[in-house]
Amino acid sequence: MYLGIDIGSSSSKAALLNEEGTIAGTQVVNLGTGTQGIQTALDELYERAGISPGQVLYTVVTGYGRLLYTEADKQITEITCHAKGIHYLMPDVRTVVDIGGQDSKVIRMDSGGTVQNFVMNEKCAAGTGRFLEVMARVLGCSIGDLSCLAAQATQDVAISSVCTVFAESEVISQLSQGQHPNDVARGALRAVAKRVAGLCGRVGVEDSVAMSGGVALNQTMVEVLSQELGRPVVPAPDSQAVGAIGAALLAREQYRKTR
Amino acid sequence: MNNAQTIIDALCEQALHPALAVAKSCRDAGKDAVGCFPIYTPEELVYAAGFLPVGMWGGSTEIKLADRYLQGFCCSIMRSNIEYGMRGTYNRLRAVLLPTLCDTLKCICENWKVAVSQLPVIPVVYPQNRSLPAGEQYLKDEFSRVRLELEKLAGHPITDEVLEKAFALYEDWRSAMREFCEAASTHPKTINAKVRHLVIKAGWFLDKAVHLEKIRALTAALKELPEEPCAVRVVATGLMAEPVGVLNLMVENGMAIVADDLAQESRQFRTPARPEGDALSRMAWRVMDQRGCPFLYEVEKTRGQMLIDLVRQYKADAVVTMLMKFCDPDEFDYPIYKAELEEAKIPHLYLEVEQQMDSFGQAGTRIQSFAEMIG
């Protein structure tokens, strides 16, 4: 078995790959770096797969917390792992959008799943999952409920501030002026989508676009990003585990290289 | 190897501790120091006046006082310089030379007079249209005015003979620096990204004659060593290769700088002087002949092609932009040469840096991902 671990800023993911290259299981725990999240995810994954840690031949760790996890054989960045994971799950896709808690990335890859180019958000938390967390807090809902609120919107309330801190003030101001929370929620998602679409423009979008990471579970986010890009955006299957799956695939490659 | 390493260690130490290096240089040479703001400063005039020219390229420090004049959205080098000036760090200098090559430098010239009033400022204004005969005359006149200001500061005239001698020393130094960069490009392990930067940077705090001697010895020692392989060879472009934390990440990921287009490094010495004319004319021509620099107006915008040529000449894998946050001239150039690099199918990494940067998480991910992509 080969193990892929993805320790993000807000969640921990693990994936097991067997010798034949089939995913034997994935696990997601919503606790990120600096917590017991990854250990919990691994315990649950091993139990479900019915294997012991000793059966793992090689481990690759990725994600924001990869440098602090010392038990892996190798650490590889989430850019490379997401490209690998998406290529495995959706071989026709050439562009991947991953909106993470700390960073947003747009990755362009070739037909073999190798990264050709990538861009990340600049300067601040604008366009990242952190922006959505702040907006959800102001709206008094969980980040998971943000999508439901936005789905019921009748219009977008424009949020013009790029800065997360200023945008928070702007949203409070919009709510105090009587704007409906549903419309404000959709405006928040639109603001992130515009930022991410800007990143896509810099890296160059090719054909179909896939979305990985936890934000891909947000249906309304996927919808507004599709609108901003003017092309369909498809959420990856098991989107939260894409990085871990990529890491597991790379673990198998690395192990075979060393043999 | 030992000889090379001894010189490298000494130069790195001096680059990492500028205050100590400048104090020692002043003591050894029996000279006072004059500060030289970026980017092109007529150092030869300062040297000929009997002063030690010292580079003022900011530093990694907490900004408290400078916020009164330059806020968080301004060039971090200039914020550091104002901070150091207000804090008294530069009090050992007799004066500062300040070329007004960008909007921030233009503003800072006036700010300095109020904020750091204890240190006289000598502005240097460069002509916008360098290629015109009037531009050449303007620059020579401007250098003559700066010469007079420095003569007043020194209390004695700068003779033509002394100026010619200073210019010749600087030409020797520029030639030696070009030769060092050549040797460094074939020894990217010994002269890794961090070492390369620090060896060059040390020249801003040492007497040029002393730095020249060390660079010649180091180059000779490098030539004795076998050529070294490297995982990822890059050409760096931008203002400067700092903070050093970014260079550490490059080294960790097997990335070496084999050539550069950095304002603090090769742009200082890549253009040799024309052979004819007096020192002032040759100084002016060096500025007029400089190509591919965003701070010197150039209709043709040759920077992109120059980077492509450097990649091919040094068999580099990619170009790395180290864009100093809020540096307008560099930001204006970026989309132009980015498109040219893409057209030439040269991989390219964009890194936004600032001197007060203390978190390297995202930069680490970018550099490592890029190395994984290239390697």
Outline of the structure:
The complex is a heterodimer of chains A (259) and B (375). By secondary structure, chain A is an alpha/beta fold.
Number of strands of chain A: 10
> Total helix count of chain B?
14
**CATH-defined fold name of the largest domain in chain B:** Rossmann fold
Query: Helix content range of the residues of chain B, please?
Result: 40-55%
Mean pLDDT of chain B: 95
Class based on secondary structure composition and strand pairing of chain B: alpha/beta
Instruction: Just name the CATH architecture of the largest domain in chain A.
Output: 2-Layer Sandwich
* CATH superfamily annotation of the largest domain in chain A: ATPase, nucleotide binding domain
Question: How would you describe what is shown here?
Answer:
The complex is a heterodimer of chains A (259) and B (375). Chain A has 259 residues and is an alpha/beta fold. Chain A is 42% helix and 19% strand. Chain A folds into 2 domains: 1-90 and 241-259, Nucleotidyltransferase, domain 5 (2-Layer Sandwich); 92-235, ATPase, nucleotide binding domain (Nucleotidyltransferase, domain 5, 2-Layer Sandwich), CATH 3.30.420.40. Chain A has a 5-stranded mixed beta sheet with strand order 3-2-1-4-5. A 5-stranded mixed beta sheet of chain A has the order 8-7-6-9-10. In chain A, a hairpin with a 5-residue loop joins strand 2 and strand 3. In chain A, helix 4 (143-151) crosses helix 6 (181-203). Chain A starts with a strand and ends with a helix. The mean pLDDT of chain A is 90. Chain B has 375 residues and is an alpha/beta fold. Chain B is built from 14 helices and 8 strands. Chain B has a 4-stranded parallel beta sheet with strand order 2-1-3-4, with helices on both faces. A 4-stranded parallel beta sheet of chain B has the order 6-5-7-8, with helices on both faces. In chain B, helix 1 (2-16) packs across helix 8, helix 1 runs antiparallel to helix 9 (208-224) and helix 12 (303-313) crosses helix 13. The model of chain B has no long low-confidence stretch (mean pLDDT 95). The interface between A and B is medium-sized, with 18 and 13 residues.
